[in-house]
């Protein structure tokens, strides 16, 4: 049976390149993985007062969806050389209530996607810092800093074969990582 893997996309815009990459991953993932893009744009900014008194339905929905998955792939742009707030907020929501983090032990991968040349390196590593604390074993190689992403899709919106090849290497490496950790 395939393992359910959550995919969190750090951009909310409809024409997001990160979303396009996440959808390519869904298409090319090996049969051992079933990728589900989980909504994070509807999560109110984390506030412990709200959480303790009347947690929003979106918090409960999100936590349950992550709890039901056996791994997490983060696909994120870089904002101002750091992590977009929407991804950090999702991480914070999933980490609470205290002692009930949904992230612990789930194998992760971080893929940063940018139209720039540096490939979102800053966001990628800032995100990794939180994953260390959250006890998520994270794929280290191959590194996935995907720059110049606008050149990876043709006029019809299809991914070029060279870029698909690279994404295939990443998703297959992640599948092996998940397999290794579940032994
Ligand atoms: C950006 N962008 C950007 N790119 C980058 O490589 N490094 C950066 O630090 C930033 N900073 C930044 C800040 C803000 C507020 C925005 C809106 C954008 C550009 C960004 O990578 C580009 O817009 C991507 O296309 C965003 O990803 P999506 O929305 O296409 O998935």
Description:
The protein is an alpha/beta fold and 183 residues long. It has a single domain (3-181), classed as Flavodoxin domain (Rossmann fold). Helices cover 40% and strands 14% of the residues. It is built from 6 helices and 5 strands; from the N terminus they run E-H-E-H-H-E-H-E-H-E-H. It has helices spanning 17-28, 48-53, 57-67, 85-94, 121-133, 161-181, and strands spanning 3-9, 33-37, 71-76, 108-113, 145-146. Strands 2-1-3-4-5 form a 5-stranded parallel sheet, with helices on both faces. Helix 1 links the parallel strand 1 and strand 2. Helix 1 packs across helix 6 (161-181). The longest helix is centred in the last third of the chain and has 21 residues, at 161-181. The model has no long low-confidence stretch (mean pLDDT 97). Residues 11, 13, 16-18, 77-81, 114-116, 118, 120 line the site of ligand FNR.
